[in-house]
Amino acid sequence: MPADLLTFLSPGMTWNMLVVYGFLIGVILLFAFDLVRVDMVGLLVMVLLPLSGLVTPGQAISGLSSNAVVSIIAVMIIGHGLDKTGVMNQVAAQIIKLSGKSRNRMMTLVAGTVAVISSFMQNIGAAALFLPAVNRMCRQLNVPISQVLIPMGYAAVIGGCITLVGSSPLILLNDLAGSWWHANPELVAHQPYSPFSLFFVAPMGIALVVAALVYFIFLGRWVLPRSEPMADACNLLNHDLECTYGREVSKVFELAVPGNFFTRRLEELELRPKYHATVVCISKRNGRYRVTEPGRADVIEPFDVIGIVANEEHARNLADDLGWTLRSELNDLSGVLSMDNAGITEAIVTPRSELVGKTFHEYGFRKKLRVNPLALYRQNQLILENISEIKIQPGDAVLLHGEWEKLHLLKQKPILAFTEHLKGEILYPENALRALSCLVLALILALGFNIQLSISLLAGAVGMVLTRVMTLDQAYRSVDWMTVFLLAGLIPLGIAFENTGAAGFLATSLTHMLHDFLTPVTLFLLVGALTSAFTLFVSNIGATVLMIPLAMNMAVQCQADPRMAAMLVAIAASNTFILPTHQVNALIMRPGGYRVKDYVRAGTGMTLIFMAVVMIMFRAVYGMAA
Predict the structure, then answer these.
(1) Among 575, 605, 574, which Cα is nearest to 222's?
(2) Backbone angles phi, psi at 538, to 5 degrees
């Protein structure tokens, strides 16, 4: 393009700047129309930028070794280790206990907890640690995970504004503002620089977190993606199994035994022959004691809560005949019988199985293997009654119900061959202390010794492997590579913005255009908007380094406090809700099943609320002049 045409478009613009803006528009279009997967967008940027000459090949792949990407990989491994040892199960159980069945209450507790944790550790770490727990809670409560992950992710980002160590821009704030202050003594009347204290930004951060929670509580049903309705949480059979076994044993139900019930043994009730119902759990003494593999000799007492597998018609008949109360959903037994913890699968009796020639009762199937047989399928015949007394033959198909962990343990034994992939995994609570120690090690290195976050978290991840919390192969499988390549590809785009001066050119041009209209209020609005826009495409650190000197200079011209202008830049660098370019937004994109339009819809309102709260707090708490 001729130089005079560039001058006509905008004096000072270069060809490289124009190309960078073209890349930016191209990325936005690819995101907006879902033309390719988001990680492919990152790979395309990684390849095309060096071919265009805007960055060097080394800069193009530098994202793969960046602090943010390495931190994400490490924290995914740490999070998997905590989940594998049952630590996050305990966290999820406590939140479920407090939230009950309320989506809003669960979302508020999760988001609020993540925000508090994020105030003292990097927000990506807080979000990644809670991902497994949120997954379990949503499945257990039958809440679409897409309704929870965006509020949690936004809370993690905003929570970093509560302290000066919660996010990279705020960590840099004192250094960058102090450097400008000492380099321009005449502009500040030779006054000494007063650094920000650790909790100076806390009122702002807390107000932003509260505003975000209120936003999602009242507007979440409209701004969050409306996922497809989840399958009935009690429906246990997939399509293939239902075609084979019908609907006789398709759902799990919870029944409450009244206080006037006469204590009886299970075999006396004859639930299987009369109702084709299998008792899979008995909760006694207000949940203090549970029988998860009940046998014929176990007793049903007043005030017990019973979990059965049957169909709805038979469950209602059973409840009516015995005077029990059929509950509409799992309540007392949700932690045991939810699809996240237990389910139905099919297994085949192998020719060499020790079951061959014995009955389930003779073998002690329930007590020995700790799972419940529901039905037998032999030579195209479905058998539901008296299956405990039938001699097992090679090739018999057995329908089993049990906790996923126990089914995984059974799979390792040469007794049955499973026909389906088992959900869940074996947990190793005996390794929980080691997993927590690795997390504490990472936090101590990062917060106590000021070691770079990526190295600190990587030390914790390596510790997980060395202490045998997980194997190296399991560590590799725990990483979501889609997230990694999305971020690694967008980082060189930020480098191109900085290398070509495109970001600085845009900021300076807008400042000159609006110079005559600048007051402290309009200045802060402009600085906040520019920083927020840059942070969507440039790293938040890059946007902070670029904007703090510019904002402080502009503040002096408007007779505003340059320290407050610098603080505004550091806070506005967290206003990254509209696109999945922030590492937290990228992290939750795949687990939540989000598309770019979901971030645009939820993030637009969050962005406006963010800016409104920031301006109000600067006026009300930090003394910004009108």
Answers:
(1) 605
(2) -100, 155
Tens of pLDDT, residue by residue over 496-551, are 876 787 766 776 776 677 666 778 888 888 888 888 887 887 667 767 777 787 78
Q: How many CB atoms lie within 10 A of CB 261?
A: 16
- Distance, CA of 338 to CA of 216 (rounded, Å): 27
**Could you give the CA distance from residue 507 to residue 538 in angstroms, rounded to a whole number?**
13
Give tens-digit pLDDT for 557-592: 778 888 998 899 989 988 889 888 787 888 898 888
Point out which residues pair with 200 in neighbouring strands.
none
DSSP class per residue in 154-193: HHHHHHTTSSTTSSHHHHHHHHHHHHHHHH-GGGGTTPPP
Token digits for 293? 């593999």
Place of tokens 């503040």: 555
Look at residue 399 and give its three-state secondary structure: strand
Count Cβ neighbours within 10 Å for each residue of 330-345 and write b for 16 or more, e otherwise: bebbbbbbbbbbbbbb
For 527, residues 6+ apart whose C-beta sits below 8 A from its C-beta are: 547, 550, 551, 554, 565, 568, 569, 572
CA within 13 Å, CB half, 138: 22
Extract the runs of DSSP E, i.e. beta strands, from 384-428. Answer: 397-403, 416-418
Please give the pLDDT value at position 1: 46
Read off the pTM: 0.69
Q: How far is CA 347 from CA 139, 357, 374, 418, 495, in A?
A: 25, 17, 12, 4, 55
Residue 131 · residue 166 · CB < 8 Å: no
> Per this entry, what is the length of the chain?
626
Q: Are 603 and 568 in contact (CB under 8 A)?
A: no
